[in-house]
Write a structure and sequence with these properties.
The protein is mainly α and 143 residues long. It has 8 helices and no strands.
Length: 143
Amino acid sequence: MSLQPAAFRGFANPVDPTPAELRAWAYHPDVTLLHTLPPDWDLLVSGDRLIGTLFDIASDRSCPARRFALHCLYIYAADGVRTNFRAHPRRRLRKFVENAEQNGDETLGFWAHNVRMLLARPELFDYHEWCEGGLVRNPRRIG
């Protein structure tokens, strides 16, 4: 199922995009290339306000920015676990994990498994893997 909006006209404020802007960009990322966005943009958008939109994007196999959204899901999960859920609610993360397990494909299944492993064993956190895209570039089950 595709959630593709019609067009993307740019971000009013790229440091704080709206869910609609992020979704539109995800289907037309060639309009505003990732390397032209603010430094650490992945970290900026990986918060509670946009995580539902990012999960939807990561769930759509046809979305050109799916890997970016999955990368943001890894950042969100790691940030929650590393801060003992001061950064993000544990319950919200668990709902996304359950949704990925029930409705996701293999890619989201890897993410859900890896999050469960990190929840059980926080020492599995590796910055390169979780926050710099290692688990997205080389998808696998950790543990």
